[in-house]
Design brief:
The protein is of the alpha/beta class. Helices cover 46% and strands 16% of the residues. Helix 7 crosses helix 8. It is globular. It starts with a helix and ends with a helix.
Amino acid sequence: MLTQLRNIVQSVAASSDLEQALHTLVQQTCVAMRTECCSVYLANAEHQQFELMATQGLDPCAQVSMAFGEGLVGVVGQRAEPLNLAYARKHPAFKPFPSTGEDAFQSFLGTPIIYRKKVLGVLVVQQHQPRQFDESEESFLVTLAAQLAVVFAHADAQGGWQGAPSPVLLEGMPASPGIGIAQAWCDDSQPRLEEVAPACHLDTQGELDRLDAAIDDASTEFRRLRKRFDKELQKDALAIFDLFVHLLNDPMLREDMTVRVQQGDAATWAVRQTVEAFSARFAAMDDPYLKARAGDVKELGQRLLYFLIAPAGSPPPVSTPIVLLARELTAGMLASIPRALLTGVVAEEGAANSHAAILARALGIPAVMGVSFSPAKLHQKTVILDGHKGVLMIEPAEALINEYQHLVQEEASLQSTFETALAAPGHTQDGTRIEVHLNAGLSADSQIAINQGVDGVGLFRTEVPFLMQRRFPSEDEQVKQYRAILASYPDKPVVMRTLDIGGDKPLPYLSVEEDNPFLGWRGIRFTLDHPDIFLIQVRAMLRASIGFNNLKLLLPMISGRNELLEAKALISRAYQEVSQEAHQAGQSINIPLLGIMVEVPSILYQLDNIARDVDFLSVGTNDLTQYLLAVDRNNARVADIFDALHPSVLHALASIAAVGTRHQLPVSVCGELAGDPVGASLLVGLGYHQLSMNTRNVAKIKYLLSRLPHAHLVTQAKQMLTLDQPDEIRAATEAFLAAQGLEALVKVGQLR
């Protein structure tokens, strides 16, 4: 039956329209299950009913619809589970439809078609004679429905079935907050790497010249874009273009492409192979921040391909406000449209941490990533883009447009209000000091102009230099990079996390294969197994701090005291070496404060014992939530379970804060929860006085906290610890913020 199952799914997926797909489904299912009738009912969410869409065995002219929960089909849909009856008419929910001719059928087996918890329809088989379908038959139909659900959802989103109704709402990942209301404008003008076919050449030098010219053209373009945005953006966003230029001239990338051309590949094919190899290394990583670098490398390849192919035509100019829809969002796309006309952007591929997303946030352009859409169905249709929730609404009702226009006005007013809180030190309404720090990692995030809005860098990721080379970076190379960061924040702390790399973040020059990289050789486990690498990095950090003394060291993935003590011994050794060298040069160096990331659940039960061994704690709520709930948030099948407001996570956070209080140990939070209004208010109530977040959230969170009395936050957090549902916790905290006069901020500014 596995062969039959595969054949049915493949036949349905290959259908040219919805009618053909459903006809194929019912016909082939009848044959496979040796039944006399098969029907498929699809859910009509607008009318809250199931409609008979195709049948083999009933009257094909019959028009049947039943409300959700009505009849046997409604029961299957409502309960979201199979119903197997030998005598269907004896079931209390049975409802006859004489026009279908179903009077002749006795047995009934129905199963829901479910995609991401949403019931799309019901698949039913029937038989004239009473028949209790056996376990294998029921399993076959359930398996078929599960596979069809994916096919149905994907085909509808991609516009593969022209007979299907256009979607009214598409969901993705929020990448830049804000609201855009305009016509959708689909840009498919960019050449695609995956469409480049293998090709050889007869003129090696000619291809090398083409490649060099394309690199030069792309570099010139990024420099031009940097100059254009020089007065609009801060240094953190402008550095994106500097990084692109740097990568385009990276010896490793350039050499790989050159070697391939010298071996006979055409320049276009050499670019595709090299870029895909580099991109794949990042795409395979677990860390969302580093995973997003795959898109950045791919964008470079796209621009190289653009200049290699040199398309003759260009997309028509935009003259009215639009929401830009693209397969992949690039910096060039954002720059090609006047800011006044670009009300939002939607990308089918990409992540919230990609450089294009960073640039969109810096420009104040709402953005949503990971949206499956059909250009033919959406081009030039009126849409609402909600960058807070990550949704795109197609041809919304006038009342909904009016409501969102009101939100746009509220948002503009709020943003100007947020800025008033940026310069002042972070504090609650009654004066409790709350330090606000930045999370950083690439030059695009770390070369941030010093301002009064932040108290330092709460997390600086050091992995990227290791991932972009053919070898481990030398000590001197690392010193240069770290010193530039420390110099940007004189008299402010910079927390540098040691190398967090391993099985899930493979180095190109150190292959690691593991069955379960999430629980594998990563973080401190990797560096302790390579003390030479660890010592070089720590020495580089210490050397870089000479003259600044604002360095704080952070160890990732600590799961036990033994790892901490071993790391401390190596740090002490590195300090002695650097201190002696500095003394000989007439310099002095302070030993930096040392902290650990609290992200592995096992360390929660050892914090009291290791408090004397560290100077501070830093909570990574992203990984802590992932490990506590056993959920990979990058897995679409379970991503909705990932919730940092889960009661177990809140109780863990409360426990960590209590340890800090008992031992007078500073504790900060550097996960995404710190930048969410609901999360920040709960964290401060739980006892956290240091929050580290992305640049875009600093003003908003400082404004929020300045309007809330600390005592009220403590009381609210205690109440939330008594609840046992994440949704209840979020709703109750939102209601609390609304009662404090902050309803608009939560409504407009919430990112989830």
